Amino acid sequence: MEVVFQLSPEIPFRVNPKPLTVSNRSRIDFCRPLSATSDSRSRNRMFVLGMGFVGGFFAEKLKEADWVVSGICRSDSKKEEWEKKGIDLHLFSADSPEWSLLETVKDYTHLLVSIPPLADIGDPMLRNVDLVRGKLSSGNLQWLCYLSSTSVYGDYGGAWVTEDHPPNPRTQSAKLRLAAEEGWLSLGSDLGVSTHVLRLGGIYGPGRSAIDTLLKQQHLSESQLRRASRRFTSRVHVEDICQALQASIEKPSSREIYNIVDDDPAPREEVFQYALELIEKRWKRKIETKPFLYESREQSSLRGEKRVSNEHMKNKLGVKLLHPSYKSGLQSIGEKMDNPF
Hints:
alpha/beta; two-stranded antiparallel sheet; about 35% helix
């Protein structure tokens, strides 16, 4: 019997009341409430390498569902912030990692990797892959997921691309992403665990959206300016990323890659114009905005024009997008915001 309970108004987590075993390890076992005498090692345990926007959002969902959750961060202030939420983190420096951390990681059943590669060394964990493999092979790991980027596809002239299209990264960061993908997929195969790569579009959500950027009156960042002149920009709401992560846990597979994007690869200018209209409509206030800055098409092409298909995510994982377009996503964000004026 499948039990459905709500972690948030938007995202139901489906669970099986049976304990996690080899035969049903594809299901998320959110058996709560647990008694005070329950053995924590019988529960699902997620370790998040990189407690950033996505990792943190998903960690809170799992925490609410009574998973054991931990991970890494780079500063004491971040560690204290998460401790107030009931999640203990380990300090970690990508430049000089403490490999003793692996003694902790190996006791976890699930591992989410959300650390961007470094310009000079690539993925910080994979530079000592033999040690990582050795430690995790003697642990409890069942599921491994690496969060990548659709930038690995490069330029397809605006055509639709699927997971079957060969990557052709144009930038150094995209090349490092692709190398990290291959490294984690190979490691997962060596360990014999369910291994996934999620290629994410532009990530947005509460506190990180076109509405927030306009309200804060901040200048566009360098990366935002590079994207400004593109005809197509694939994006995805963080809640839909969580849906994809949930589904990938429930449906184990080997060396599987998914594009995690919405249905509407709209240009950035269109998204910001819609966000401006939402602000004016909801709060009856006009805000001053500077014209969008554009660079030449030649510079923009380094990142590549493409429309990224999400059909594999829908068909294989069964994900039904909560926000198939930026319009739905921005409306949801705006409706939940307090009056910023």
